[in-house]
Every structure is written in C-alpha cells, then in structure tokens.
Write a structure and sequence with these properties.
The complex is a heterotrimer. Chain A is 38% helix and 24% strand. Chain A has 11 helices and 10 strands. In chain A, helix 4 packs across helix 5. In chain B, strands 3, 4, 5, 6, 7, 8, 9 and 10 form an 8-stranded antiparallel beta sheet that branches. The longest helix of chain B is centred in the middle third of the chain and has 49 residues. Chain B starts with a helix and ends with a helix. By secondary structure, chain C is mostly helical. Helices cover 80% and strands 0% of the residues of chain C. The chains are: A alpha/beta, B alpha+beta, C mainly alpha.
Chain lengths: 269, 616, 240
C-alpha cells in the first residue's frame, strides 16, 4: 500500500481529499445593530457530516446560511470574514450567487416542496441550470435523485402528483432529492427533521448516512441525539460564537468547554 | 433548585359548584349567545336591505322589459317609400315609412282622421321609431314594396305606459242597463235606466267631499302658520319702531328689510288661505247637493263611455243620464243593450296625466279590436340611447363600458402587477421606495373626480386624446384602479410563504426566476381578486367620466376605442335625471344590467381563481 | 461536579439518588470486609454468618443501581458528564458487589477455620493488608463522592502497597507451612483470604480508574505499577 513510487499527482489528489471542504476564517455577521455571529473559525471536512448544535438564536443557522450566501436575501445583513469552498472564496462579491447555490444545496426546516408535481420539483433545478440536454437525460436525473433520496419506490407510480400531496417525511426527502438533483458538493440542512415523526426522522438520518459517501453535509439540529447519531464532527454555538468544535464522539462524551457540557447535559440557563 | 420547589405556586382548587360559579358560567354563556345574536342581527339587517334594494330595482325595472306595440297591416306603396322607383337600398332607406305606418293607423279611424287636429293626436300614439322595423325589412327585401306587410309598430311611451297601467288605474265596467245615445257626434246625452248611475254619482260626490275636506285642512294649517308669521311681524315691527324712536341707525336697515319680508309673506299666506277656503267651500257645497247633474271637471276621474263603436267622454252625470262630448264618432243612435256598451273610469284626473282622454279613447278602441299587444323589449338590449323612452336602449353604454374596461384592464394589469412585483420583491428598502409606497397608498384614497380633472387636463388637454372616448375613459379609470391593484397584488405576493422563495433560491434559482416561476403563480389568485375588485370599482365609477365628457348623449353603438361613448353608470345617471316616467323603468333596468355585468366579472374572477389556486 | 443543575429537576434527583445508593453500598461493603476479617481473627462463626447474610443486601443494591441506571439512560439519553456518571455508577456498583463477594468468601473461610487453633502471629500480615484495603476502599469512595481525580489516582498508585504486602504474606505463609505441615490447612485458607484481599485491592483500583474517568473524561491508560509477583515466586525447600 505505502508504495514509495506514488505518482506526485496522486499524492496531490490524496492531499486534496484530506483537505477540508469548507473553511471559515473570522466570519462575522451583523443584522443591523445585532452582532449575530462573532469571529467563527471552522474547518469542515469533505465527505462527512458536520453537525451544528446550540440553543435557539445562537447563530448556527446564520452561519449555515453564510455558506450558500442565503443571508444576502436578508436586508440589513452584513457578512465579513472569509469562507472558502475548496479554496475558492465564496464571499467574493464578484462570485455568482446562483452558481454558488447550485454547488451548495440546501434543505430547510419545514419541508417546502414547490406546489408542482413531484417530477417538476426535482426537475426544476437541473432545468434552470441547463444540466440536462434532453428529456431523457432529465428523466434520468429525476429518477436518480429520487432513488438516492430513497423516495423512488414510494412515488414512482405517481410522479405527476403534486409534491404537497406527500407525507411530511416524504416531502422532506423530496426536498433532499431536489437539492441533490443539481449535483451539489455541499448540502446544508437546517433542522431537516424538526417537523417530522421519529420514523420519518430515522429515514432521513439513514439517508444522510448514505449521502455522506458523496457529499459534504452540514446539518443544524436541535436534537443532540441526532447530532450524535449522524455526524462525525460537531460544533457547538453559543451567543453567536463557536464555542467548541471536535469529533462528535468527544463532544458528546467529554466536551472540553463547560458551556458545551452544560448545554448537552441539559443544564443550560 | 430546591428553593424553586419550595416556593412553587400553591395548588388551587377551582370552585365550580358554588352559586357564584354557576352564575359566572351562566353569564359567560349569555354573553356568547348575545354576541351570536348581534352577529345574526347584523347579517339579517344587511340581507334585508339587499333584498329590499334588489326587489325594488327589479319591480321598477319590470315594465321596461316589455314594450307595447300595435299590429297594423301596412300597405307598402311604391310612391311613399321608393319615389324614384330605383329600388336602390339607400333610396329605399330614405323612404317615408313613417307615413305608410301612420296611414295604416289612420285607416282604423276614418272619421276621426278627417281633421288635422285629431290626426295629430292619432299619430302621436305611435313612437317616432314605429316604422324602423318595417324600413329594415323593406330595405332587406325590396320585393315587399307594393304588398301589405303586417307590422308591429311601437307605441309612444305615453301610450305604452298607459297600456302597462302605470299612468292611471283603469276600470272597465260593462254596462248593466240599456243605454241610448242622442247623437253620433258633438255633444251627446246618453239616457240610461233610472238610477243606474246613482253609485257613480255618489262616488263623484265622495271625491268632491274628500277634496273639500283636504282643502279645508290645508287652509287650517296654513292659517296656523299665518298666525305665527303675524306674531313675528308684530315683533319685527315693534323692534323697528323701538330702533326708530331711539334714533340709532345701527341695524335699522336690517330690521326694516326683515319687517318688509314678513309683511309680504303674510300677504301671500293670507291669499293662499282665502283660495283654499273658497275651494273647500265650493267642493263641499257640490258634494252636499242631491239630485240633478254633476259636472265632471279635469280635477276629477275621467269617465269614458264606449258605445256603438264610438267613444263618449262624460262631462256631467246624473242618476239616469250621462252628458258628454263624443271623442270618437258613434256608428248610430240605437239603444245599446246590457253588456253591449261599457264604462271606462280613469282614476287619475286628466289634468294629472300626460295622456289625454282622446288618446285613451283611441287606445281603448284599438285594444278592444285586439290590436295592441305587449312583447319582450329586445330593443332595449339592441339599441343605443334615445330621447324617446320607448326607443332608448342600453347597448351603446354597455359596449362603451366593455371597451373602457378593456383599456383599463390592458393598462392596469401589467403595470400594476409589475409595479407590485418590483416594489415587493426587488426594490431596495430606502427612503425613496418608502415615499413611493406612501404615495401609492395615498392615491388609493384620492377622490375619483380628481382623476377626472387630471384626465381632462393631461390626456385631453395635453396629449389630445379624443374626449368622451373609451380610450380616455380607460386611461382615467386606470389611474383610479392602479393603486388598488398594486396594493392588492403586493398583499398577495406578501402572502406567499417565504419558504417557497427560499426553496427556489436554495436550488440556485435567481431572484427573478424565483419570483416568476414560483411566487407569482401562487400570488395569481390574490392578484386576480384584487384586479377584479379594482375593475368592479372602475365599472361603477361615474364622477371622473363626467369630467372627460363621457356624459354625452350617445345614440350610436361605439365601434372603436376613439369613438364617442358613454358607460353604464353614466347612462344610469343620465336616465335617472330625465323627467319622463318611461325613463324611470329604464334606469332600474340599466342598474340591473350593470349589476349583471358586475356579477359576470366576479364570476370570471372566481373561475380564474379556482383555476390558478394551488395549495402549498 | 457541575455547579449548574439540570433544567429537569427529576433528572437531577435520579442522578443524586444513584450517588446516594453507591455511597450506601460502599459503606456496607466496607462494613462487610471489616466484619469478615473480624470473624476470621476472632473465630466468630455467628459474625461470619451475619456477613454472609449481609452480602445478599449488597447484591440487592447492585441490582437496584443497575436497574435505575438503565432506566435513566432510556429516559434521559444522558450526555457527557451525566453519561459518565451513570456508567461509573454501574461499574462502581459492580466492583463493590465483587468486593462484597470476596468479603463473604473471607467470612466463609472464617467458618472453616473457626475450630482450629492457631497462633495470632499468623494473622498479623493479613491484618495489615485488610487495614490497608479498607483504607483504600474508603479513600476511593470519598474520591467518587467528591469526583476527585487526584485522590483516585493516589488510591490507584497505592495498590502497589497491597500487592507488596500480599507478596510478603504469601512468603510468610509458605514459610509457616514448610515449618510445620499441621499449619498447611489453616495457612491455605489464610492464603486464599490474602488472595481475596489482594483481589479487593484490584477492584478498588478499578473503582479508582472509573472515578478518574468520571472526573476527567479520559481513561487511565498508563500501566498500573504492579507488584504482585506471587505468580512467579518459587520457593525451594531449603536443602538442609
């Protein structure tokens, strides 16, 4: 295995594989007067799941939304600092936000399928990005995405039904299928299971585990158990600061910071 | 933590069984019931008003949905309708069809038609549009020239109203005794069996008595106010005297004028009282006489006697005879038996109605001959405005309204929706957009007549858009409706859940794609509702259109956007202002048409909303 | 221990109840060990019977703590320090139960040797061992109650002393046996008693390790100073 004659290019590839996917340095977010995020530094490894935990209003969702520049849509929101994906600075104003969002997919707290057919929901992203060149290719993308989202078996006979006719868990998986249809590198999930029952939650968690092989997933969750179950690394946010970040196994058994400890053991406040 | 457990709230048992508690519950239930009742009462009250309004309008409009016409056999002679014999439709169209119809009618009354005066009365029964139908038919088919054509000639509105029973209550009583007229023309006395008319005589006297009593009452009332005026006059006089004796000039002129005015008031009231007293006296005196003949004047119900093919107007009646003037010559002086003659009582005195007894006599004769008939008034929906109530139709204003609405919609919908989308989704939130927003809201509250003035000054005065055209009307109404549509559209856009926007942005749609692919379709039902409300508002608007000349009298149906036109509400306004009774029904009918137009628009809105509605 | 309390007060109560039970159980185990040895020295069969009976109560405590711990895990899904506390309680109670068993074993030997006469001097080394073991046990229970990693570490290190003592007692007893074969029966029992006490010392170090993990979150990974060399001791009969 450790052959001495490894080609330099392969060596580079291996190094690139080990380098973090998303790197944040000194990220600050202000909503008007409010300092919502304070000097966040974090490395998010590729092909793994990173969980953000923390009490409500701690800035975890704000940080998540910095990664696909969703905060741009909020008036009065100012983001400073540097976030890079594969070394490319995404906070560069010259960067096309639409293309960034094609690379960084997002799944929201409440399942929000478009009020269109299941097929249209998944096909929308590829269509506006011109990913598919023909109907056949688009069909393949839709079917493939639904399959990867574990939804195909349940909906294959009714792709024309409205997406909103599905159950909550199915809707959320449809949203995931919609996100992966564009072929993103990073998937952001903002409390994807908070509106779902435990069975649907388990399905989504299983799906996240599968998707980890191909995508870099960042998930915000309020359920510490969920963070412990699905993530490899966990970051704890409190009052706009990143308090602690580390291996999930360490964070949940032996956190270093007292605030993390208090939060995860339910001693907060 | 243990402290918290110690100082926690004490467990309290809610009292549910005591009398006070039961009373509280009862009070609560009562309050709820009361509130429900208030609500029901409010709904019932408004429903009642609506029913009342609709019923009133429908009842008033009923007469205008039928029209009276006269079935005549009209000989179409070449020399009257086609004088140069060219058979050219343009020439035929100029032919004197009125004369043809007129003469067909004269033929029914050969005796009466001998005099010019009565000829004019007879032809007055026909509408000025009586020959229009015939003209159209002959122009379309010149082969009819030289034949006798059955024509439904429209009657004048007075005749029409009389036949619909809107002018007077008419009693037609078959004669119960034998009647013998003394002559066939001029003054005539009809002798009846003894006391055959005692009842009528009594009725007439009753009417007299009533009139006398009313006059007396009025006299008393006026006299009472006269007394007050006298007192005030005396007071004014004494003030004047006091001023004069004190020698002050201040207020003297005012006091003098006041006294003078009161003096003249007193004088006029005094003469009024005298007149009333006199009328009361004579009326009562006549009512109290017994036997003899009673003279019928214009203030009393008219009595017409149809006998021996002619018509006699009673001028005085006695218990066993009727004296009167012949309106239509009688065929003979023979005795008419029971049921062979009849008495027609017109309850409204001749002086109080537009249609004369002679005209009534003609109509009654025609009616007895079975020539008058009532038919649905399609003309109302197929013609433009007219000075003649029986010819006036709604079509020109209906088309005017439709054309105006098309212009308004074509301008408002794109401009309003695009403005709303820009303001709601794209505009930066700064002082300028705030200002724009405030101004849009203000515009929605500007009185509509101001838009009319603006339209007059800008569109007509500056841009030279033809006045009273649907184009300028539509432009002005667009200004009026635009704020409504913008506000409604913004509300509809705002109501679309942000999650849909985020979902679209999240898969990499641009802002514009998110809005046009997802937000706008979801907002469409709301936008349509707002638009229809705005359009309905515009449809019912009158004031600004008055300013830009759409109040004109338009006979022709407008065929283009620059043609002079009027619109439904203005037409209603115009008709409601006309003195002719016939137009009252037209006004109500036009209101119904306007309401139906509105219902149709709302129906369309509901249909569109259903079609576009999507759940999310 | 965290000075902040849980938001859910019943959770807090459950955790402190576990601690209380461990403390009780520890006290009982100490008592058991002291009494068991007393019975051996004084050759008091009645006391030995009591010790054997009391061990049942220690077992019952162990069961109770296990049940409570499992129930708390199921209900609360504890994290971090709480999770460690519950796991520690489980392990400590297990160790204490084993210590109880070993104390019972000593008491059983007391019954077996009750009828035999033997010089007191035979017991001296064993007595020191028990004293030290009791001291260790007390210290480690204190360390547990105070979440004191230092104290636990001290206990952990001090186990070498017991091991050393065990070595010397082992040699001593072997010597006695060689001197006089009549001592063999008694000395074998005592030898096993000493082994039991040495085992108690090992369980005490286990508890110390648990306490260290509980307090710091990191396991003790260094090799413990082992000085029990008895497994390799060969005593040649003196060739005289």
């Amino acid at each position: 295995m450790l052959d001495m004659k490894v080609m330099p290019a392969e060596d580079d590839k291996a190094a690139a594989e080990l380098a973090p996917k998303v790197v944040a340095r000194g990220v600050n977010v202000h909503y008007g007067e409010k300092h919502a995020l304070k000097d966040v530094n974090v490395d998010i490894p590729r092909r793994s799941v990173m969980a953000f935990i923390g009490p409500s209003g701690c800035g975890k969702t704000t940080f998540l939304r910095c990664i696909n520049r969703m905060n741009d849509t909020i008036p009065g929101c100012k983001v400073t600092g540097r976030i890079t994906i594969d070394g490319e600075d995404i906070s560069d104003p010259a960067l096309d936000v639409v293309q960034l969002r094609a690379r960084v997919g997002m799944v929201f707290q409440k399942p929000n399928p478009f009020p269109k057919s299941i097929y249209e929901n998944v096909a929308y992203g590829p269509r506006i990005h011109g990913i598919a060149t023909g109907k056949a290719e688009l069909d393949a993308i839709v079917i493939g995405s639904l399959k990867r989202a574990g939804l195909l078996e349940e909906v294959k006979d009714r792709l024309g039904d409205p997406g909103t006719s599905l159950s909550g868990g199915q809707q959320q998986r449809l949203c995931i299928a919609r996100a992966i249809a564009v072929g993103p590198e990073v998937i952001l999930m903002d409390e994807p299971c908070s509106a779902l029952d435990p069975i649907a939650t388990a399905r989504i968690e299983e799906l996240i585990d599968e998707l980890r092989a191909n995508f870099t997933i960042i998930i915000v969750t309020h359920s510490m158990q969920q963070a412990a179950r699905v993530s490899q690394r966990t970051a704890f946010f409190h009052l706009g600061s990143l308090v602690e970040e580390g291996e999930t196994s360490q964070i949940f058994t032996n956190p270093i910071d007292r605030r993390t400890q208090d939060y995860i053991t339910g001693r907060f406040g | 933590m243990t402290d918290a457990a110690d100082t926690g709230p004490a467990i309290r048992v809610i009292d549910t069984t005591s009398e006070a508690a039961r009373r509280r519950v009862r009070t609560r239930y009562r309050a709820e019931r009361r509130f429900k009742l208030y609500g029901l009462a409010a709904i019932g009250f408004s429903a009642l008003f609506l029913v009342f309004l609709i019923t009133d309008i429908v009842v008033k409009a009923m007469p205008s949905f039928t029209i009276s016409s006269l079935s005549l056999e009209v000989p179409v002679k070449a020399d009257t309708v086609n004088p140069d014999g060219s058979s050219d439709p343009a020439v035929i169209a100029r032919g004197d069809f009125d004369k043809a119809v007129r003469e067909a009618l004269f033929a029914r009354f050969p005796e009466a038609s001998k005099e010019r005066k009565s000829r004019r009365v007879i032809q007055g029964l026909l509408s000025s549009g009586a020959a229009d139908g015939l003209r159209r038919r002959v122009v379309a088919d010149p082969g009819l020239i030289g034949t006798t054509v059955p024509v439904d000639a429209i009657l004048s509105d007075d005749a029409d109203l009389y036949l619909k029973g809107l002018v007077t209550r008419t009693l037609r009583i078959a004669g119960t005794t034998n009647a013998t007229p003394s002559a066939t023309s001029g003054s005539v006395t009809i002798l009846l069996d003894a006391n055959a008319l005692a009842g009528d005589l009594e009725t007439v006297r009753q009417a007299m008595r009533q009139e006398g009593e009313v006059a007396q009452e009025n006299a008393d009332r006026v006299e009472a106010s006269l007394g007050r005026y006298r007192a005030r006059l005396a007071e004014a006089q004494s003030t004047l005297d006091a001023l004069k004796s004190s020698g002050t000039t201040e207020g003297l002129a005012v006091a003098e004028a006041n006294a003078q005015k009161l003096q003249s008031d007193v004088a006029s009231l005094t003469s009024q009282v005298e007149g009333l007293r006199q009328r009361a006296e004579t009326s009562l005196a006549r009512a109290n006489t017994t036997g003899g003949l009673e003279r019928l004047d214009a203030a009393l119900p008219s009595i017409l006697i149809a006998i021996n093919g002619g018509m006699v107007k009673a001028t005085s009646i006695g218990a066993d005879r009727i004296e009167g003037d012949v309106l239509l010559p009688l065929a003979s002086t023979g005795t008419a038996g029971k049921g062979a003659w009849s008495k027609i009582v017109l309850e409204t005195p001749e002086g109080n109605r537009k249609i004369s007894d002679t005209e009534v006599a003609l109509l009654e004769t025609l009616g007895q001959a079975g020539l008058t008939r009532s038919r649905p008034n399609w003309l109302f929906f197929a013609s433009g405005d007219s000075r003649e109530a029986e010819l006036a139709g709604i079509l020109s204003s209906l088309v005017g309204s439709a054309l105006t609405m098309i212009i308004t919609l074509a301008l408002c919908l794109p401009v309003g929706v695009l403005a709303a989308i820009y303001l709601e989704e794209f505009a930066p939130k700064n002082r300028l957009t705030d200002l724009v927003e405030v101004n849009i809201n203000n515009l929605a509250a500007v009185p509509s007549i101001v838009f009319g003035l603006l339209g007059l000054a800008v569109f007509i005065g500056f841009f030279g858009v033809p006045s009273s055209s649907p184009l300028v009307g539509g432009l002005v109404l667009s200004l009026l409706v635009l704020p409504t549509i913008i506000i409604a559209s913004r509300a509809a856009l705002k109501a679309v859940p942000p999650s849909i926007r985020e979902a679209a942005l999240g898969v990499g749609a641009s802002k514009q794609q998110a809005v046009f692919h997802h937000v706008l379709p979801l907002a469409t039902p709301g936008i349509l509702t707002g638009t229809i409300i705005g359009m309905a508002h515009a449809l019912g608007e009158t004031a600004p259109l008055l300013m830009i000349g759409m109040i004109a009298f338009i006979v022709d149906v407008p065929t283009s956007f620059t043609h002079s036109a009027t619109v439904l509400p203005v037409q209603i306004y115009l008709w409601s202002d006309l003195p002719e009774v016939g137009f009252q029904a037209k006004t109500a009918a036009a209101i119904i048409v306007l309401l139906l137009f509105l219902f149709a628009m709302n129906g369309l809105a509901i249909l569109l909303r259903r079609r576009f509605e999507r759940r999310w | 221990m965290a000075n902040k309390t849980h938001i859910v007060s019943s959770y807090e109560a459950e955790l402190s109840e576990l601690d209380n039970k461990i403390a009780h159980m520890g006290g009982m185990t100490e008592q058991l060990l002291a009494s068991g040895f007393d019975a051996l020295i004084k050759r008091d069969p009645a006391l030995a019977e009591r010790v054997i009976a009391n061990d049942k109560m220690v077992d019952a405590y162990n069961h109770e703590i296990e049940e409570k711990a499992i129930l708390t895990i199921a209900k609360r899904q504890p994290m971090a320090v709480d999770l460690r506390q519950i796991m520690a309680a489980l392990r400590v109670s297990n160790d204490l139960e084993r210590i109880g068993d070993l104390a019972k074993n000593i008491a059983k030997r007391a019954l077996a040797v009750a009828s035999e006469q033997h010089p007191r001097s035979l017991m001296a080394g064993l007595g020191h061992m028990v004293e030290l073991a009791l001291h260790q046990l007390k210290d480690v229970l204190d360390a547990y109650a105070q979440r004191d990693a230092e104290k636990a570490l001290a206990v952990w290190r001090a186990d070498a002393q017991i091991d050393a003592m065990y070595n010397s007692v082992f040699r001593e007893l072997l010597t006695y046996m060689m001197e006089d074969p009549r001592n063999i029966g008694l000395c074998t029992h005592l030898l096993f008693g000493a082994k039991n006490i040495e085992r108690i010392g090992d369980h005490t170090t286990n508890i110390a390790e648990t306490v260290h993990y509980l307090a710091t979150g990191t396991p003790l990974t260094d090799d413990r100073p082992k000085s029990d060399t008895t497994s390799s001791i060969v005593i040649e009969p003196k060739a005289d």
